[in-house]
Write a structure and sequence with these properties.
11 helices, two-stranded antiparallel ribbon, 310 residues, alpha/beta, Spore Coat Polysaccharide Biosynthesis Protein SpsA, Chain A
Length: 310
């Protein structure tokens, strides 16, 4: 492939203009002289995001999708246009640090069996955002639903799903890494394709990591590289719908990868999950009625087996 970029940075945006501006500026700065391309899919934002990209970042390949296609759907046309050796999913509220690409490139170049790589992620306040998890199963889901993982956040047993006993200081192979900064080797895309558009948002990167592992590649965490992630910039705008989408995607992930018989126990676990979340919301004074509405509607979506792609 002639003049192939080293990295293709792919961003899906929905009404996060200021975050997107900061993200694109950080990509310019962090990439230095490396050959890169930047692709942005704008999901019909109403805040002037597309106009800002055209005006301030003429080198960016801008795709206006014409509607809110979600995370996987928004990324689909970017996978089609991507030419880089490494395709990187970047959330619009992520900022790269200087030189963060160097350890990523070094790791990938000396370990060709790594198919997906994630890095150390810090919040805007500088605190660590744990970004590695094990693949979910119904036992993990039950512990999460009971709230015991919140009581024992650093336990390797009670918080096994979120790897509570891992301090994110050592490079290692993991089951999955967060999709907010998600590096994919070109050979993986050629082998298994893009994200599954059956997910609107949530669990699509979990599914992709599982597909990557099944294709014979590793998923790897590299702590020598750091990015900042505000977190939930788009999702925070629609809390009830966000939780419903999370629960629909959870059902799709389990049925797709573990069979339709997971549906009934998942319903029972989500009942418990809703109760504990409402109780936590009551204790903390954080919109218990809205929380109850969100979890009830999400439970009903799962009960009715509503699709996860909208």
């Amino acid at each position: 492939m002639t003049d192939q970029p080293l990295f293709s940075f792919a961003i899906v945006n929905w009404n996060t203009r200021e975050y997107l501006d900061a993200c694109l500026a950080s990509l310019r700065s962090a990439s230095g002289d490396l050959p890169i391309e930047i692709l942005v899919a704008d999901n019909a934002s109403s805040d002037g995001s597309a106009e800002m990209v055209r005006r301030q970042y003429p080198e960016v390949v801008l795709v206006e999708t014409g509607g809110n296609l979600g995370f996987a759907g928004g990324h689909f046309p970017l996978f089609e246009r991507s030419r880089g050796r490494y395709h990187v999913l970047v959330n619009s509220d992520v900022r790269l640090t200087e030189n963060c690409l160097t350890p990523i490139l070094q790791r990938l170049e000396r370990a060709p069996d790594i198919g997906v790589l994630g890095c150390r992620i810090l919040g805007a306040d500088g605190h660590l955002q744990p970004s590695c998890r094990r693949f979910p199963n119904l036992w993990h889901q039950l512990i999460e639903g009971s709230g015991l993982n919140r009581l024992f956040p650093h336990s390797g047993f009670w918080n096994a799903y979120k790897m509570g006993d891992f301090n994110h200081d050592e490079p290692r192979e993991v089951d999955q890494v967060m999709g907010s900064f998600f590096v994919i080797r070109r050979e993986v895309i050629d082998r298994i394709g893009p994200l599954d558009r059956g997910f609107f948002m949530y669990y699509e990167e979990v599914d992709y990591c599982l597909r990557t592992r099944r294709a014979g590649f590793k998923v790897f965490f590299e702590p020598a590289a750091t990015v900042y992630h505000a977190g939930g910039a788009s999702a925070a705008k629609v809390k009830v719908l966000t939780i419903r989408r999370l629960m629909r995607s959870m059902r799709r992930y389990y049925e797709k990868n573990h069979g339709i018989l997971t549906w009934l126990p998942l319903l029972a676990i989500l009942s418990l999950d809703g109760v504990t979340h409402v109780l936590f919301a009551l204790l903390r004074g954080r919109q218990p009625l809205t929380t109850a509405k969100a979890y009830w509607l999400g439970w009903w979506d799962v009960f009715m087996r509503k699709p996860a792609h909208f």
